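Researcher: Please generate the 3D structure of the following complex. Treat every line as part of one assembly.
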Amino acid sequence: MRYLLRRLAFYLLAAWASITLAFVIPRLMPGDPEATMFARFHGKLDPQAMAALRDTFGFSDEPMWRQYISYLGHVASGDLGVSVSYFPARVGDVIATGMVWTLFLAGMAVVIAYALGTLLGIAAAWRRGGWLDSIGPPLFVLVGAFPFFWLAMLLLFLFGFTLGWTPVRHAYDSRVSAELSLSFVWSVVTHAALPAITIVVATVGSWMLDMRNTMVSILGEDYITMAHAKGLPPRRVMFRYAARNALLPSVTSFGMALGFLLSGSLLTEIVFSYPGQGYLLIQAVRSLDYPLIQGLFLTITLAVLGANFLVDIVYVWLDPRARRGQQ
Amino acid sequence: MTGVINQLAHNRRALVGLAILGCFALLALVGPLFVGDPTAMVARPLSPPSWDHWLGTTGQGQDVLAQTIAGARTTLVIGFTVGFAQVAIGALVGTTAGYVGSRVDDALSLVINIFLIMPGLPLMVIVAAYMPTGSITIALVLVATGWAWSARVIRAQAMSLRDRDFVLAARLAGENPLRIVTHEIVPNMTSLLASAFIGATIYAIGAEVALEFLGLGDVSAVSWGTNLYWASNDSALLTGAWWTFVPTGTCVALVGSALALVNSAIDEIGNPRLRTEHAFEDELRAAGMSPGLSTPVLRREVD
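Model: Done. Output below.
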């Protein structure tokens, strides 16, 4: 329990640091950040709305610490201002629509890649030196050397444009109405298939290598020899004795890898014009929509921190040593 | 140090990796002299590879081969510079935290961990979006967001070296801490620093290409990232112009794999157990046996 509380304190501190970074960065940059930030709004907003927006971001003639306090207040109440490119929609609402698609796509792909990679790793370590163990690691190292989003471009080119097997952009067919019907679900699944496959292909290798290496060292332990000597069925030794214990370190690296995974899946979304957070991010960058960039930075970072805390909870739940050792 | 270089020269992986890197270094250094201006319009846009233009042309009628070669120079210079800067900062912070320990370590570790846990891409995007576009911006952003990875491994190594006898001896002899760090600790982690540098460079090249692909670099300059940016903006995929993005991606992957090969060779040299394991497996195979589950024990001589 104390361990989790300490982790929670760390995540809160990291959250505060990233919220503060989002406040400091625009003010540190050369030139007049306020002018750059609000130049796009001129002519679109009446002076009153401009004043309200400045206030949201804490830009005012007040001393810096007062600006900071009012900014913190706005972030705490979830008010991230108004988007320029999706004007007059609020940043929070814009992000919420993208969040659904990112959670669906990245969540699904990461779970599939993790499960598949772990199983492959178990199999490769179990038959060490076998065909899977000889072909798998070098192949995945090679695939991992290509930029994540470049693999997305290649798959899109091959299967989307050249072979025409899958749709090439967006999350569902615009001719299908967004309701819970069979044709809508089918449209969503076919649109998500290729981006999801990209993420799985690009990441499955690192899970496999991780799991293989931990499994190999665990298979050398005495209790595995003992389990074999007792005459337990090999399958039981493989999963209940070896794989179960090898899973622990991979849970920790799951947390560490989340940031990287998310970055990759954001880029994949961009290549497939998939309307998630990544697509919003590129829209925001192209139209210099600073409020949206800032809002996306905050939500993505906070989501990663939250996910890491969940991983910590799972870790403590899985490992009795983590529970007892820290008390 | 000469021993490490000697071992690298006898390692097959290191040789293959270094050979590929050497080719790219040569390409980046003198290649641009042999191809024309990469930004000039030389033929019909998006024409496929032909005898005149070996890798075809881009959506703006520029020669893809010239762009790929010119891009190598920009990308590799930024990649290696950023890799070096990341390790330099990582070494400074890491050795300070690891050697001084106690409260200084607590504070620095906290900063390192916060930087590690923040997702890289959104952080890079928010910094790059506010700064004037250009290669220097990209380099600064990459250093600022990536140094923590090196700092973490270097800190761990410095902590374990701090308690060794020779460091204790130096401390008892009254050496000042700065000298102990620069003359006792840093020379004893050369292989770690080298592999951190290579790891940081792999990361830097990947992140640089990604940032430029997003249009956050100087889109009028020629680099591997901007090549991919223009390929995707000129709807190369839609028109089937595979030659606009395949060469660049392949180059990135080749450089990345070459660096990874050198890195694994360095690991092998720095970790004798890995070396014996390979030697042991080779011996078993030579004897017609298959390597099974075993933990090789380190012998004095391996060859």
